[in-house]
Amino acid sequence: MIYKLPQQRLLRWIALFLIGTFLQFLFYIPTPVLSQNSNSCSNITTPLTSEEQTYARASWQYFVKNYQPATGFTNSTGGYPSGTLWDMGNYLMALNAARWLNLTDQADFDSRLNKFLTTLSSLKLFEDALPNKVYNAATGQMVDYGNNPLERGIGWSALDVGRILAAFDVIRTCHPQYNDWLKGIVAKWQVARSLKDGQLFGATVLSDNKTLLVQEGRLGYEEYGARGYQLWGFSAPKAIALEPFKLVEINGVQIPVDSRDFQNTNANNYVVSESYILDGIEFGLQGELAEFAARVLDVQKRRFDTTGQLTAVTEDNIDQAPYFLYNTVYANGTNWATITDANQPYPQFRSLSTKAAFGWRYLFPENAYAQKVFDAVKDLRSPEDSGYYAGIYEESKQPNKALTGNTNGLILEILYYKAKGNHPLIASTSASVSSSKPSENASSATPSNQPNTTGNPSENASGATPANQPNSTVTTPTATPADTSKPTEVAVAPIPPVDSPQPSSKLKLDRSLTPIERRYADAAWRYFQANYHAKSGLIDDRSDFKGATLWGLGDYLAALHAARSLDTITPKEFDQRTRHLLAALTKLPLFAGELPSRSYDTRTLQPVDYGGNPVPEGNGWSALDLGRMLAALYNLKSCHPEYTAAVDKIVLDWSYLRVVREGILSSANVTKEQDGRYLTRVNPETRLGYEEYAARAFQLWGFNLDRSAVGGEYRTASVEGLKVPIQRHRTDTNSKNQYTVSNPFVLYGLEFGLDPKMRSLFEPIFQAQAERYRRIGTLTASATTLIDRKPYTVHSTITGQGESWVALGDDGQPVPKGRLVSTAVAFAYNALLPDNKYSQQLQEGTTDLYNPLIGFYEGFYETTGKTAVGFTSSTNSMILQSLLYNVTNRQPLIRPITTMKSLWWQTVTKGNSGRGLPNSATQQTKLTSDSSGSYWVSSGQNTHLVTGTK
Q1: Range of weakest confidence among 277-286, 469-478, 772-781
Q2: Residue range 251-279, pLDDT digits in tens
Q3: Which pLDDT belongs to residue 929?
Q4: For 110, how many CA atoms within 13 A lie in the half-sphere containing its CB?
Q5: Do residues 715 and 727 make contact, with C-beta atoms less than 8 angstroms apart?
Q6: Which residues of 731-768 are buried (b: 16+ CB within 10 A; e: fewer)?
Q7: pLDDT at residue 500, as a whole number
Q8: Are 745 and 765 within 8 A, CB to CB?
Q9: What is the number of other CB atoms lying within 10 angstroms of the CB of residue 641?
Q10: Residue 290 DSSP symbol
Q11: 3-state secondary structure of 793
């Protein structure tokens, strides 16, 4: 008994500890991390024009005139003192935008926000858990949607909670002095009650006064709301995933639609514009959401093309009963439905939405249709200076004079997004994006999070280029953490106008493009519009990485020529872009003062490694990339001779002493020794197909490369009963080619034609793929492609590392279920072999794999048929070149120069340049023709295929 009292105390202490621990978990809110540097909020890189300032001032006037001084809230609609948590989020976003756009000063901002947060902190919560769905904006009382006071309330909306959590994140980021206050508000709310089974759940009150939890959100808004939760540490993985959805064809576009419709769930699965616009301006459209957004815009354009009715649909208040409608692309089995929340149709009130038109205009600033719908509403302001009207009725053509915080708040957000240089308001690392199928062969990653954004840090920044092969001796650099500061973009002035610009290229077309081909050409060129750096004049090798290689820039120059020849771009645009690119090439720092480095930052023009990290001294050069650029520059001189002097100046700045040695191409790599020293090593190139292509390009400029040009003996492996080349037989190096893919062979065929030596390599490569399709029924277009997830670069080989049909990453490791059908290679095979049934099937399988605003995708997965998300200059350039090849009577795209009197050949003639120029002013290759067609050829031995061990 003497131990009873201490035992009781001990038990009491344990009980108190457990209760305290329980309460901590009950009210636990994860420690938030600010999503951006607050200084970035005031960083206005693209100031509003005078017209845009008018738009912004008009929108802000809505909030000035609908302010409730007693609560600090604003009316959700003009003159009506009611507001949801979503409306409150709109106001916070508008208030932040107004501050940084100098529509209000800091004192007014603080006064408004302090009053707002004071009232918000004291609001009565539904079941003491979460804010009610709607409050009286003038009094702060819980009300129903008719603004009638209710003691208990009507429940909560999880989507609205997600909206205000995103707004809270922007406020704490841009105004960190309010961070603790906001944390306290969120800690008071029982946010976890709105989460269940990884999804968002709202609450509603039944007729018997019981509370029912209801899953909230459909494709678009569900992901947006979940990201708001995620910013504060609350995870809803099922909500943030895109599944379940299906694709519904509307006006020829495959539109993603949530599979959970009204008939099955009593909730609408509407497809509208606003959810994608919000995602774009706040989080930045990434992955498949970017593709979905582009489709939603494109289908509205196609409705306009078909009907002549300008279309920009989303949910809006209207100025007559029933007062709120969902104008949709699709809802509950109906295209272009206009419905109430109860799924009642009101097609007579479908309208062109002001906020949707503003959103599409600034999310896709180069899109002509987005500009067209914007022009229709940009002046749709109240004459009483009360803000922007909600839209224009399609049927009556009269303004929908509803004035709302949603419309005017979103316009302010959009204009702030524009002023920040189209930089998302919430850092991309703060919230993730899910793939539609998380179980796909590789995990999804956003570009900003990729430790290996170029495919392989030790290899080329463009995965489709030859330097992305693991036989390089480059030491793999480690990617440094992403620098949140924006790089200083270098402004490059174009070279002066050329003396006599030509209206079009010298290339004569055999026929015009068909309407379908024209659509493909326009889509491919979109890549070069969407990824153009207006200051530097450069193009990114891939859409998710701000970097370029000489190979990628050669792709761009080839695409420019093709686009101009096909009349996809005007002579003026061609001239401006060409002069800008040529000027940028003169500004690139040269490795060791000799040749361009392997990769550059497209904003700063400084050398970077393949992880995107600055390397001031450079990281070597690629002879293959140099060959790609030399081929493109030669053709620019040939087909557009007015640029000859500028081109010759560029190539005469380079030194070729170490890249051409004893008839062989060599590349330089930089290695780090154990003692910390960096050493340059120059080794012969051995990459099958790429070496032959680059050598032919060098021969155009007079270089003797008989040992690298196509010819000699090649080792083969048996694939599908065919002798497929795997390695040039050589004794000058121990390096081995790691795999055989189609890319270099089809590019060679398009530009140089298939001479007998190249044809003997090309044909078994193609025939093996056709035979595989015949045997197993799987379309096969084996190539190096880029994707937006690990391993980022996939080599779908014909044969690689001793195995047939293996998919490899840059590290040489197999990628299970990773094989892709390459869009570019499919187009090229069909151009080169138009009468072949298999090449026709390849073309049919890939022709519609494009986003009309961004360009062609890399391809699709063999096993699932799912589109491989990834956009590159290499793919879109090859498609443009394939289309050009089709309309030039299938002649080699590189045309011969008719004069040898240019500065290059004059300098070669003088000799003793100290730059390793050719020994004589004579091209080492010539264009010839026979019964099989036209092709470039050089002298040498016939090609022999040597069978045997690999």
Answers
A1: 469-478
A2: 989 999 988 888 788 888 889 999 999 99
A3: 92
A4: 7
A5: yes
A6: eeeebebbbbbbbbbbbbbbbbbbbebbbbbbebbbbb
A7: 63
A8: yes
A9: 18
A10: H
A11: strand
DSSP string, 684-740: E---TTHHHHHHHHHHHTT---TTTSS-SEEEEEEETTEEEEEEE--SS------EE
Q: What's the CA gap between 408 and 60, in Å, rounded?
A: 7
Which DSSP state fits 860? E
The answer to whether 225 touches 217, Cβ cutoff 8 Å, is yes
Residue 427: its pLDDT value, please?
64
**Phi/psi of residue 740, each to 5°?**
-115, 125
Residue 356, token pair as written in the block: 């949707």
Cis peptide before 244 (omega within 30 of 0): yes
Q: For the purposes of burial, counting CB atoms within 10 Å of the CB of 649, is it exposed (0-12), middle (13-18) or buried (19 or more)?
A: middle
SS3 638: helix
CA 503 to chain centre: 33
Distance separating alpha carbons of residues 139 and 141, to the nearest angstrom = 5
Which residue has tokens 């007062």? Answer: 323
Bond into 256 cis (ω within 30): no
Place of tokens 């390849």: 842
The two tokens of residue 73 are: 């809230």
Range with the poorest average pLDDT among 289-303, 535-549, 649-663, 667-681 = 667-681
Q: How far is residue 912 from each of residues 75, 226, 907, 918, 920, measured CA to CA in Å?
A: 80, 68, 9, 10, 11
Whole-number pLDDT of residue 382: 94
Binned at pLDDT 50, 70 and 90, residue 384 comes out as: very high
Strands 245-250 and 678-684, how do they pair? Answer: unpaired
Residue 883 burial (10 A CB sphere; 0-12, 13-18, 19+):
buried
Share the mean pLDDT of the chain: 86
Class of residue 708 by CB neighbours under 10 A (exposed 0-12, middle 13-18, buried 19+)? buried
- pLDDT > 50? residue 578: yes
* pLDDT tens-digit readout, 402-454: 999 999 999 999 999 999 988 899 864 444 444 333 222 222 222 222 323 33
Average pLDDT over residues 681-709: 95
Helix, strand, coil percentages (3-state) for the chain, rounded to 5, are: 40, 20, 45
Alpha helices in 27-157 (DSSP H): 50-65, 85-100, 106-122
N-to-C CA span, the chain = 87
Least confident of 147-151, 289-293, 447-451, 753-757: 447-451
